[in-house]
Specification:
By secondary structure, the chain is mainly beta. It has a domain at 4-48. The protein has strands at residues 4-8, 14-18, 25-27, 34-36, 46-48. The strands form 2 sheets. Strands 2-1-5 form a 3-stranded antiparallel beta sheet, with no helix packed on it. Strand 1 (4-8) and strand 2 form a beta hairpin. It starts with a strand and ends in a 27-residue tail after the last strand. The structure holds zinc ion. The site of zinc ion has 7 residues, from loops.
Length: 75
Amino acid sequence: MKPVIRFRCQCGQRVRIETEYVGETVQCPTCLRSLVVPAPGAPGTEVIHPHAKAKGGAAAPGAGGNAPDPPQPVP
Ligand SMILES: [Zn+2]
């Protein structure tokens, strides 16, 4: 259970990904554009914490440990 960040692609597609991918490049599932995952708190982003419900906290990325491979590496 990790917090996820939600942001929007230029095509309007909403992308949701774990916050550990902030700064990584992912591919939009709809338009296949390369997207850099924005930092929590950036305009247009929303962080969803699986544990905390309806709390006002914006950014609280926990101490990340081992990070798996990014979902969609872009060449
Ligand atoms: Zn897109």
